[in-house]
Records
---
Amino acid sequence: MLALALAWVLFVPAADWLAHHDVGSARGPLLQTARDAARGRLLTLGAVLFAGVALLFTARALVLLRRGQVTDRYTKAIEQLGSDKLDVRIGGVYALERIARDSPRDHPTAMEVLAAFIRVHSHEQWPPPEPGKDAVPLRANPPRRAGRRHGHRTPRFQR
């Protein structure tokens, strides 16, 4: 109903006002031609406004979709970190690394999870000692940073 009222206002009073503005006090075919031209311009303006609003909604939907995908990837990576299989846990570490690199917004969270994972699991010796053999003591001074370095690529959020 609102759309019909808006269309009527655009095509009748607004078109008449615009036509009188263009041709002044002329009557007859000149006024009718001016009204048709004014309706065309108003229709073009309405189409441009509609396209702009549609573009804004599409951009917003894309942002929300990307956030949802990052959330799904994050959830899957956390599940992988909790696995009993080593190769699945390694995949979870790499997945969190990728999330941290792809999403500056989620970088601190991914790093906190990886740090917590390392803190919890760093007390275990890998590979586990064979039964009957003494365990090799853990290093007194573990490395301060672990990970791959990409000297030629600095993430956007660290520039």
Note: The chain has a mean pLDDT of 80.
---
Amino acid sequence: MPIENVSDTARWVAFYRAMETERPDALFRDPYARALAGPEGERIVKEMPRGRASSWAMITRTVVFDEIILDVVRRHDIDMVLNLAAGLDARPWRLKLPASLRWVDVDLPAMLDYKASHMRNVPPVCQYAAVPANLVDAGERAAVFGRLGSEATEALVVTEGLLIYLADEQVAAGKRGIEGDIGHRTSPAIRVEASWMALRISG
């Protein structure tokens, strides 16, 4: 099988972003995607049945999330984006985000270390931070939400591809954590609703 672990999916999706970036009529540009995907990402796509032909779903998801994030950040004075299971997402480097925005990636330590090794010499467009955590673990998830929620005035929480790895109760617990630890610090409540809409799209 071409995909052996969760980290493989991040390289796979990054290669799809590289494919789109290299089209003359690309819907978005991610100049970092090919390096992040590496040879492993390309191998996965080549070995998957209809690997290249299936790229449209991930490309569409990327475009939709780009639009949601930029729109919500602009219209609602968001001061923190909390990106759960961030993988190899390069939005803090490639999107036109406010320089004052704080963007926090949360993912497993190995994934964050891999991304940092590729991006350490590229300045982000906003204030970037990475927080290692296993979001499947309820205690680690609560600690992340509690700490970062206390540091944000207006927060947007997004994730792509996390929910398929969680049981229904874990998804519900995550929603309660967002609403409890982060939601009560945002005003009006549309911030939480927009965040949860983004979560549900990814699932």
Note: Confidence is low (pLDDT under 50) at residues 183-203.
---
Amino acid sequence: MSENDASVASFQIHVDGASRGNPGEAGFGVSIVAADRTVTELYGYLGQTTNNVAEYQALIHGLHYAAEQNAKRVEVFSDSELIVKQLRGAYRVRQPHLVPLYRCAQKLLARFEGASVEHVRREHNKDADRLANRAVDERKSNWPAELRPPQAWPSIL
């Protein structure tokens, strides 16, 4: 995408995590929309983990993708009330294993000129839900090879 492309200016990022059991087989799904068109759909298999970890992974992957595409503003939509309220400061992050994910998400959100995180009902997050379930069903990911892998993220934050 070029700097002049309107889709670079602002992304709507729909995120969802899925876990079959808690913990259980898990995956994430991300649907990114700009200028009323789907820019990309991403999904990833996470193996055994909790639903909250899967929700955070969806968020982090979506934000990372948007940052790599030089988006200026992001609107994130999630059906996880917990994640949304934690990111807004209404809830503290009490589970120690979620703290690094929360911090990573906060750092990624701060990279944008404008960022919001909104709670949506599950029926308004169907694409991300479909992608998260696809990751679990197929036990695979479609993360773009040209983007840095998650292991490299701490060095870029």
Note: Residues 51-68 form the longest helix (18 residues).
